[in-house]
Every structure is written in structure tokens, then in C-alpha cells.
């Protein structure tokens, strides 16, 4: 009976081994060589396959480049500009030899000199009044001192206002005369340029080197003195409140300077 029991156990072990053998073999093969098909077993996905890298941000999809608009059709051929004929003008030299410009400069200098003389006399009178007040202060009451100080301050304020108005009137008179000068100069430059068939006029500061025939300065200065021997300078106290803007005489680097001392 014991042998019979042992035989049953052995047969069970053998049968179990026959059944579990292929399963163990498949498991070992899958662990040793993953990713390959094993006959009689189930195909497993490869464990060592590539995975998306972690920690690296994925680049966003780039938008397609915008299509450039089509180029506009070419314009029809136009008229070609004429060949350049250049003339050169020295504006400061013209101002120096102009009789009208010299007359304006001298008149403004006389008015400024008179203004300075009057200002000096008025300032001296202010100082004398201050000294007199300091000398008499001991014999004056507080109210009298305040009254005289206030009167002196009002006198100084009013005088300063008048002198500022006179200085402004001189500047406005110079601007009005300058407008007349520049208009005449522009007309003469155009006349001389047309007589020489010049179609481009450049100021002297823009030119580094040129031949003498290109220089129109002397001819323009002579013609300007014939056209405008004297300029009109408004009388003192009659200058316009806002002098009109000077008309450009010719393309140049700097406008004509107002006559000054």
C-alpha cells in the first residue's frame, strides 16, 4: 500500500514536470532573450525598447512661413532727368560784400548800442536810489522804509520790462530786414543760374574741391547789389509783432545769419 502511494506521488510529480516544463522554459527564454518570438508561448513586447527621453522639452510645431506678396508690376518708363550742371555759391561771402546786408548790420548795432547805454544809465539810477535809502534808513519809520523799497522794486521791474521789449523789437526789425534780403538773394540766384544753364546750386560748405568756373558767388553778389542796394529796416517801435518766416533762397546748409556785432 505504501508503494502504491509512493508510485502515485511519483507519477504526479512527473506529470507536473511535463506540464510545467515548457512553461519554465518559455519564462527563462523570455528573460534571457526578450523581444523574440518563442514557439509555443506568447510574444511579449521588448522591455529594452526605446522610450521617449525624459527631461527634454518637445519643440513646438513651427508655423509655415508666410508667403511673400507678389512684387508690384514695374512702372512705365518715365522721363530721365537732365544732365547735372552744378553751380556753387558762398553765402557768407555774399553777405559780407552786400551793401544791403551791411546797412542792416550797422543799423542793428547802433540800436543795440543805444539800448545798452540806456540800460547802464538806468542801472546807475537804481544803485543811487538804493544808496540814498540806506543812508536815510535811520531817520525813516518802518512803514516809510517798506514803501520806498516797494516803489524802487516796482521801478526796477517796469524798467526791465521796457528794456526787454526794446531788445525784442530790435530782433524783430532784423528778422524783417533779413526776409527782404533773402527773397532778393533767392531771385538773383535763380536768374544767374538760368543765365549759366545751371540746374543744381550748392552752398560752399558742401563742396571740397571745384574749378573756378563753377563758382557763381561774385556774379550773384554784384547783381544783388544792383537789385537791392539797401534793405528796409522797420523804425524803432514799429517792428511787427511776428516777423514772417524767411523764404528759402536756395538749398544750403545753414540759413543766412542775422547781422550781429
UniProtKB/TrEMBL annotation:
Keywords from the UniProt entry: Coiled coil, Signal
Keyword Coiled coil: yes
A GO MF label: unfolded protein binding
Entry GO terms, CC: cytosol
SUPFAM superfamilies: OmpH-like
InterPro entries given in the database record: Chaperone_Skp (IPR005632), Skp_dom_sf (IPR024930)
Pro residues compositional bias, start-end: 70-84
Residues in coiled coil: 98-162
Any matching Pfam family: OmpH
Compositionally biased tracts (Low complexity): 39-69
Region (Disordered): 32-84, 231-261
Record family assignment: Belongs to the Skp family.
Annotated protein name in UniProt: OmpH family outer membrane protein
Taxonomic placement: Bacteria, Pseudomonadati, Pseudomonadota, Alphaproteobacteria, Acetobacterales
Amino acid at each position: 500500500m505504501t508503494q502504491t502511494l509512493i508510485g502515485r506521488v511519483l507519477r504526479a510529480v512527473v506529470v507536473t514536470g511535463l506540464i510545467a516544463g515548457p512553461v519554465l522554459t518559455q519564462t527563462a527564454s523570455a528573460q534571457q532573450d526578450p523581444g523574440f518570438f518563442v514557439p509555443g508561448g506568447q510574444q511579449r513586447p521588448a522591455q529594452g525598447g526605446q522610450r521617449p527621453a525624459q527631461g527634454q522639452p518637445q519643440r513646438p510645431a513651427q508655423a509655415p512661413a508666410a508667403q511673400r506678396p507678389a512684387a508690384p508690376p514695374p512702372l512705365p518708363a518715365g522721363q530721365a532727368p537732365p544732365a547735372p550742371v552744378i553751380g556753387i555759391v558762398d553765402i557768407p561771402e555774399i553777405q559780407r560784400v552786400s551793401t544791403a546786408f551791411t546797412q542792416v548790420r550797422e543799423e542793428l548795432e547802433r540800436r543795440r548800442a543805444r539800448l545798452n547805454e540806456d540800460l547802464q544809465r538806468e542801472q546807475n539810477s537804481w544803485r543811487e536810489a538804493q544808496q540814498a535809502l540806506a543812508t536815510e534808513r535811520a531817520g525813516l519809520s518802518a512803514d516809510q522804509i517798506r514803501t520806498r523799497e516797494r516803489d524802487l522794486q516796482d521801478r526796477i521791474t517796469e524798467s526791465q520790462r521796457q528794456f526787454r521789449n526794446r531788445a525784442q523789437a530790435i530782433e524783430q526789425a532784423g528778422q524783417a530786414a533779413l526776409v527782404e534780403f533773402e527773397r532778393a538773394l533767392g531771385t538773383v540766384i535763380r536768374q544767374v543760374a538760368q543765365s549759366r544753364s545751371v540746374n543744381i546750386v550748392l552752398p560752399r560748405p558742401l563742396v571740397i574741391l571745384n574749378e573756378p568756373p563753377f563758382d557763381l558767388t561774385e556774379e550773384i553778389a554784384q547783381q544783388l547789389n544792383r537789385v537791392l542796394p539797401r534793405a528796409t529796416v522797420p523804425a524803432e517801435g514799429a517792428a511787427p509783432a511776428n516777423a514772417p518766416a524767411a523764404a528759402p533762397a536756395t538749398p544750403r546748409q545753414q540759413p543766412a545769419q542775422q547781422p550781429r556785432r
